[in-house]
Specification:
Oligomer: single chain
Number of strands: 6
Radius of gyration: 33 Å
Strand content: under 5%
Helix content: 55-70%
Strand order of the largest sheet: 2-1-3-4-5-6
Structural class: mainly alpha
Distance between the termini: 69 Å
């Protein structure tokens, strides 16, 4: 009982039935503007007009004093604190009920400082709190904890004054200690409690879940004799949040077998579990039960259902559910209206996020546009998702419009939203706009720094990335594993082998970060760029990473670059053992063989590819002009202006040949005549997109094209000569990086 004695000795003013929390006004930050004088914010219940009518009658009859507590309760339930305090002042001698009602009103809307102020005043007036009063005050402390001494002080006062501790009050104290993360106190109190109900066990289970002690929480759950629905919800949800989805799934099936009825929270948790494991069949079964029980109208269940179908890739089913959103009638009050607006907003947000996760970026953009047109509230999660969609699709203008929309509605830019905007501008080819956002940011954490470093890496500005990384370290920001991926990528793209090796060692030795596949791949790429193929073999062996396919893929690219066919064949065999159905190894190796005119071997590789049913993704390029995206594939004739495009492209190739361009037919893997190879290369998708961009924009306008695959050698040369001939900047984003072509040169230094 030493801890109890400590509380009693240190934290209380020793006056019978009087309590004073040490320096409440210093410990608790007061709300800057009292809610008592903004009653219109909360006066949305039908109780308020009823209370005013009754109040007027009581004043007329002179009976306010008799019915004061009843009237006060009506005002508090209407959440009109201004009127509640006026009514309280009219009560001649407020008793414990009066004070408790007023305290409960402030607690209900989260005014913790007001709750503690009223509680202190109550004590000063000589009114002794009852158990319900103390429970409310403790709950308020736990919802807004600035200093754990306050709750401990209340607990000490309870012990010192011999208040009868029933299960409800004990649970309030226990819950307080758990929420302010005083787990040692909670554990001691739980052990001392003579009367424990299911709520007590649930609170304690939750405490172990919070500190990540899964075993103890499950053991406690097993010891619980009477498990109610809340107990099952607590353990299943806690396990799921701690990454133990499989155990949570087992317990969910146990719950079904045990028989407690599912409530709306159980359905919501079950749907989240199904979505996290992508178990569509379970999600459908839960959906059926939701319809049977009749809780589909509940906002939590509704949104969990939409989210489940989105994460399981069933977007059409999610669309059907959202279209039938069961909003309440027009007669609903303001509070209900706000709740429905929140449900609608979350549903739309889930749809946007679902489209992005499933790679349907155009649908995500359309859904977001519909959200804005329908005046649905857009939260930061939705904005982050839509910026991700813009980044992936490379639609710069739409991204700029969303950025302007944020400014218009007054959304503050926190570091996460700011980093999303930076990422969007970077991946849409506008590094200058990304720099503007970064320079304007007031609070730069590791996420924001990393976004900018990775952006410089993607655009081949390795020296700028190194400078930024060093600045970040000088600012005292600790880099994380993603930061090191960014800086290693930058060194790789810029060929900075010495700097890259230094940062790889720093990651391990100075920050204790264990390298992952991305870090190893960057290092292999660095060695490969420098032509140190034998050192790559040693690196793979020394780091025991022969099972990382991304490393072998990078190794194979280096073999292609340096035309080392024998080593390329050896690497390809290693890679095909790991990923026999990946198109990359087949394409790269056949390209290597074709370059050296080893047609028979190239044909064998293509034949093996067909035998295994491996299909190459068709190359696609797109360009956005005037808010419209124009897509092209090789030899595409579907565009309305195809005649103009092909005519101009023929003319352009002729002019380029006059200044030194020649078609690099070595990239054609088929053994065909020279002229036929030229035809096969002449109408690659990026050439068509660039030709369309040139004829559709004013002279000197930069052209930005996106491609879903790696740019081939011939197209790379074509774009270099085009930038030189026309004096235009041409920006191309392929699957690996950005290429900035200016005056016949590329930012990649012809290594990509």
């Amino acid at each position: 009982m030493e801890w109890v004695c400590y509380l009693t000795r240190v934290l209380f003013v020793r006056r019978p039935q009087n309590f004073s929390v040490i320096s409440i006004t210093k410990i608790i930050r007061r709300t800057p503007k009292s809610y008592w004088h903004s009653s219109s914010t909360f006066s949305d219940s039908t109780n308020c007009p009823k209370a005013k009518v009754l109040h007027a009658k009581l004043i007329k009859n002179g009976c306010v004093g008799i019915q004061g507590n009843h009237l006060l309760n009506l005002y508090v339930k209407s959440q009109n604190l201004a009127e509640s305090h006026k009514m309280f002042e009219e009560i001649p001698q407020p008793d414990v009920f009066s004070w408790t009602v007023l305290i409960s009103g402030s607690a209900r809307i989260g005014l913790s400082s007001d709750v503690l102020g009223l509680f202190t005043n109550m004590q000063n007036q000589g009114v002794c709190p009852n158990r319900f009063t103390l429970s409310v005050v403790l709950k308020s402390c736990s919802s807004n904890v600035y200093d754990s001494r306050i709750g401990k002080g209340i607990h000490g006062w309870i012990l010192r004054n011999g208040v009868d501790l029933d299960a409800v009050l004990n649970n309030s104290i226990l819950d307080y200690y758990v929420k302010c993360r005083c787990f040692g106190y909670a554990e001691k109190l739980f052990g001392l409690m003579a009367e424990k109900d299911t709520v007590s066990w649930n609170i304690m289970m939750n405490s172990y879940l919070q500190i990540g002690n899964m075993q103890k929480s499950v053991d406690l759950f097993r010891q619980l004799a009477r498990k109610d629905t809340a107990s099952w919800n607590t353990i299943i949800d806690g396990l799921m949040r701690n990454g133990c989805e499989s155990i949570a799934m087992e317990l969910l099936y146990e719950m079904v077998a045990a028989g407690p009825a599912f409530n709306r929270l159980t359905f919501s948790i079950s749907l989240v579990l199904a979505s996290s494991l992508s178990v569509l069949e379970l999600g459908k079964q839960i959906h059926t039960q939701v319809l049977k029980v009749g809780v589909l109208h509940d906002g939590f269940v509704w949104n969990s259902l939409v989210d489940m179908y989105c994460k399981c890739g069933e977007m059409e089913k999610a669309v059907v559910i959202v279209k039938h959103l069961p909003l309440k009638p027009v007669t609903r009050n303001l509070e209900e209206s706000c709740d429905d607006a929140g449900v609608e907003s979350v549903s739309w947000s889930s749809m946007v996020s679902g489209y992005v996760q499933n790679g349907r970026f155009e649908d995500a953009l359309k859904t977001f546009r519909s959200m804005v047109c329908s005046q649905v509230e857009v939260d930061k999660f939705t904005l982050t998702s839509i910026f991700s969609a813009c980044a992936s699709a490379g639609v710069l203008e739409f991204g700029r419009q969303v950025h302007s929309y944020i400014k218009k509605i007054g959304h503050g830019l926190d570091v996460f939203l700011g980093s999303s905007i930076i990422d969007m501008y970077v991946k849409c080819g506008s590094l200058n706009d990304a720099w503007l956002i970064f320079d304007q940011a007031k609070d730069r954490n590791v996420v924001l720094w990393t976004s900018m470093i990775s952006g410089c890496a993607l655009h081949g500005q390795g020296r700028d990335a190194v400078r930024l990384f060093e600045l970040m370290l000088n600012e005292g920001i600790t880099p994380n594993e993603v930061s090191f991926v960014g800086i290693l990528n930058a060194c790789s793209h810029a060929g900075l082998l010495e700097e890259g090796s230094k940062y790889f060692r720093m990651m391990r030795e100075s920050y204790g970060i264990r390298p992952k596949a991305e870090h190893f791949t960057c290092m292999v790429d660095l060695y490969g760029r420098a032509g140190r193929l034998n050192e790559i073999k040693e690196f793979i062996h020394n780091n025991s990473i022969p099972n990382l396919s991304s490393v072998w893929r990078s190794f194979l690219s280096s073999c292609r670059l340096h035309k080392n066919i024998e080593m390329g064949i050896w690497v390809c065999k290693k890679l095909l053992e790991l990923e026999p159905f990946d198109t990359g190894p087949y394409i790269l190796l056949s390209s290597i063989c074709a370059t050296e005119h080893r047609w028979e071997e190239a044909a064998k590789i293509r034949s093996l590819m067909h035998q295994r049913g491996v299909k190459k993704n068709p190359g696609q390029s797109w360009i956005q002009l005037k808010n419209q995206v124009h897509s092209f594939v090789m030899g595409d004739r579907s565009h309305p202006q195809d005649t103009q495009i092909y005519s101009y492209l023929d003319e352009l190739i002729g002019r380029l040949k006059e200044i030194g361009y020649s078609t690099d037919v070595t990239t054609v893997v088929q053994d065909v005549e020279h002229e036929q190879r030229q035809v096969l290369l002449g109408f690659h998708s990026e050439k068509l997109a660039i030709a369309y961009g040139i004829i559709s924009t004013a002279s000197g306008t930069p052209i930005c094209v996106m491609k879903n695959l790696r740019v081939c050698i011939d197209c790379h040369n074509f774009i270099k000569y085009t930038s030189q001939l026309l004096g235009r900047e041409i920006i191309v984003r392929d699957i690996h990086r950005f290429h900035h072509f200016k005056q016949g040169r590329c930012s990649c230094g012809d290594y990509w």
